């Protein structure tokens, strides 16, 4: 389903690679946790799956396709088969829960008859069938994340990438989100989740891949967050050198996105993009991982707003 063959990614000449000599495969239907300290390469890995950035050397295969052979005009079609869930939800604030999910279908031209069937199904699946008319600010953090998951999954992608999806949630709510992702995985979707959530990893006991300085140092079939592996940074077996390799993405001409998961762990003064005088770029303005649907949601919101029908009137 996802395969990296001797992949190295270097953002700036002369600097350490963000990912180095990566050889790993995620099989169809797997649930994989990506763990590691800040700058370990987790987000670079995800960017390459989304074809937001290309490896410096080596090849990346997704769903049987060599991404280096996919022309740019076919990338949107590739990304429609990859759902993306973020730590900060990325919901359109002026649209209801129903409309946020509906919008993800509208931007790819889904017929309205199909939309009217799929959106209620998704709201029911995430346990929000009675909250379709609520705006994001009227929902709790856990409910907003459920809407975001429904939006990412509404096209039934074969792959779902999740970047710290429980990072802003309390433990009880996070447990519900993990159960929802497990249900999606049980339906056949490959789930790859980057996380610092020790409780989630220990509870699920799924495959755990730990990265340190762009290399895989641990790959446990039914792992826990901490490990006896001598190269594990998160277990305290190896000092964290405070390397922030993913921050090098700022200098990559292909993308100026940042690692939202790792960036959240830094103090404001340490974050990439901080400029003299105290100004810095806000992650919501496009510095994080982006999938095609999220790009459409932000760029075309106003253009589509008048065209979207009232979801409640169709009921």
TrEMBL record:
Residues 2-238 form the ABC transporter domain. Belongs to the ABC transporter superfamily. PROSITE patterns: ABC_TRANSPORTER_1, ABC_TRANSPORTER_2. Part of the ABC transporter FtsEX involved in cellular division. Residues 252-315 are annotated as: Disordered. It is a peripheral membrane protein. PANTHER family: CELL DIVISION ATP-BINDING PROTEIN FTSE (PTHR24220:SF470), IMPORT ATP-BINDING PROTEIN (PTHR24220). GO terms for biological process: cell division. Residues 254-273, 282-299, 306-315 have a biased composition (Basic and acidic residues). Homodimer. Forms a membrane-associated complex with FtsX. It comes from Brachybacterium epidermidis. The keyword Transport does not apply. This is Cell division ATP-binding protein FtsE. GO terms for molecular function: ATP binding. It is found in: Cell membrane. InterPro entries: AAA+_ATPase, ABC_transporter-like_ATP-bd, ABC_transporter-like_CS, ABC_transpr_LolD-like, Cell_div_FtsE, P-loop_NTPase. Keywords: ATP-binding, Cell cycle, Cell division, Cell membrane, Membrane, Nucleotide-binding.
């Amino acid at each position: 389903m996802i395969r990296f063959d001797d992949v190295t990614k270097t953002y700036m000449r002369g600097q350490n690679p963000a990912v180095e000599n990566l050889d790993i495969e995620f099989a169809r239907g797997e649930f994989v946790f990506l763990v590691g300290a800040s700058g370990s390469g987790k987000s670079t890995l995800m960017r390459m799956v989304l074809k937001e950035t290309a490896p410096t050397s080596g090849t990346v295969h997704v769903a049987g396709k060599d991404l280096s052979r996919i022309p740019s005009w076919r990338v949107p079609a590739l990304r429609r088969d990859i759902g993306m869930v973020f730590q900060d939800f990325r919901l359109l604030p002026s649209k209801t829960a129903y409309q946020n999910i509906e919008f993800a279908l509208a931007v790819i031209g889904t017929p309205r008859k199909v939309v009217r069937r799929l959106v209620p199904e998704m709201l029911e699946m995430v346990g929000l069938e009675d909250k379709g008319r609520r705006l994001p600010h009227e929902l709790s953090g856990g409910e907003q994340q459920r809407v975001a998951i429904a939006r990412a999954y509404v096209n039934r992608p074969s792959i779902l990438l999740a970047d710290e999806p429980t990072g802003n949630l309390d433990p009880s709510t996070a447990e519900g989100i993990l159960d929802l992702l497990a249900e999606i995985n049980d339906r056949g979707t490959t789930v790859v989740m980057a996380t610092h959530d020790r409780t989630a990893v220990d509870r699920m006991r799924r495959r755990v891949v730990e990265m340190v300085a762009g290399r895989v140092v641990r790959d446990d079939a039914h792992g826990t967050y901490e490990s006896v592996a001598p190269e594990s940074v998160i277990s305290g077996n190896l000092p964290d050198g405070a390397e922030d390799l993913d921050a090098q993405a700022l200098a990559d001409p292909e993308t100026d996105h940042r690692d939202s998961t790792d960036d959240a762990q830094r103090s404001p003064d340490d974050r990439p993009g901080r400029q003299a005088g105290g100004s810095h770029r806000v992650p919501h303005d496009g510095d994080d991982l982006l999938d095609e649907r999220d790009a459409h949601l932000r760029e075309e919101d106003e253009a589509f707003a008048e065209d979207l029908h009232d979801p409640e009137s169709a009921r």
